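--- STAGE predict ---
source: upstream dedup step, 1 unique chain passed
mode: sequence only
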Amino acid sequence: MGRAKNGVFGWRNHSMFGLVVAGLLLSSTAVARDGTDAEYLWIQDPWTGESVLTAVRAPDYSLWDPTQISDYQAARNADYPPPLAILTIDALDIQVPVWNGAEEHVLDRGAGRIKGMAKPGEEGNFGISAHRDSFFRALKDIEQGTEIVVQTTHGVDRYAVSEIEIVPKHDSSVLELTDDKRLTLVTCYPFYHVGHAPERYIITALPLLAKAPDGQ
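--- STAGE serialize ---
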């Protein structure tokens, strides 16, 4: 059993850990090896069916809007398919599951892959969206060079922030397909705006390296 530096576990042998998983799934949370509360989830590639068991630390609600806390807690009790990735930004204490699609009910639960953009592990522009008043509120403090880690069933990809920009909400140029591998994070802006936000906060990150999960 290996543990990546970012605190995400990866187990690929379902039979070996079947008893462990059965015990964990009796409760939505358990205690990770570093002593923090963790939610255990299977991440799954919906195109291949391959799965990896992960431990995702509980979110820090300190910056969240109270309504989003309630929506998130309600969403945790709903039936969702497995997420396809785990996004981690240790410098901002962000760790969030990423589901396929960026519909409202998905973003109540975590982050969402923007459909039509690159799939996990592919070359191209992998776009991820989340709410500005929950998981992505801490992006207000991100800086160029900040490391972003994405774990999928294909392994662990590490990126560094290369550009931070604010664009009108209807500007879709940042979501264009690219030949090179990159990560684009999208959330509404301003972060504390009341009502529908008029702009979008865009983070572009380029790969540092890619490797298989620890122990592979």
